User: Fold this.
Amino acid sequence: MSQETTKNKKTKDVFDEIDDLELPVESKGKKKEEKISAKVKINLTELKAGLQKIKNEATQLLNLIEEVDVGEELVELDVSQEKLPLVSPEVKIGKAGEKIIEGVFDGQNMVGPDGKIYSVPANYASKSKLIEGDILKLTIHNDGSFIFKQIGPVERERVIGCLIFNEAKSQYYVVLGDQKWKVLTASVTYFKGKVGDEAVILVPKDCQSRWAAVENIIKKFE
Assistant:
């Protein structure tokens, strides 16, 4: 065998040995992530109802913020929100096709389980001496008329304070010390109350509230 042939054979053996080695090889490019596609079915009716609820709650919060005086501490006063779990979440249909909805009185209106606001006539709220947290039943008849009924009154306590009027907000208040409650104008008018009179009001017993019901007025001057 010639010298050149022997040299070529050794060279080939070396390359064969290299091919047999398991050497770690670093990939120059990153492995592409696998894309997972998933189809999600969306119930548009439920989505719309959920967004409407969020909108109503946001509106309530904005109204609450606007009602707070500058420098006044914002405390947990929304009794109606705490009482909502106690009402039926369903809209019932009566024998004549009327809608029956339960809700919670917030001092002015009834808040439904879906967050919708139903206006309560001031004369009815005043006459019935409704306070925050009272559970109401609303019957909406086929002719569009609204009939409210109190079905779950919260425990009350009496407070005697001084009647004042905020001209900027056109709102009557009853004040006792550092506490202040809004009262319906219809109630003050019914009892012919005037600024400076003493007002006997009803408020929730176990929690704070923004609103109170006027039970009577003690005239300052006869």
Remarks:
- The first helix runs from residue 3 to 20.
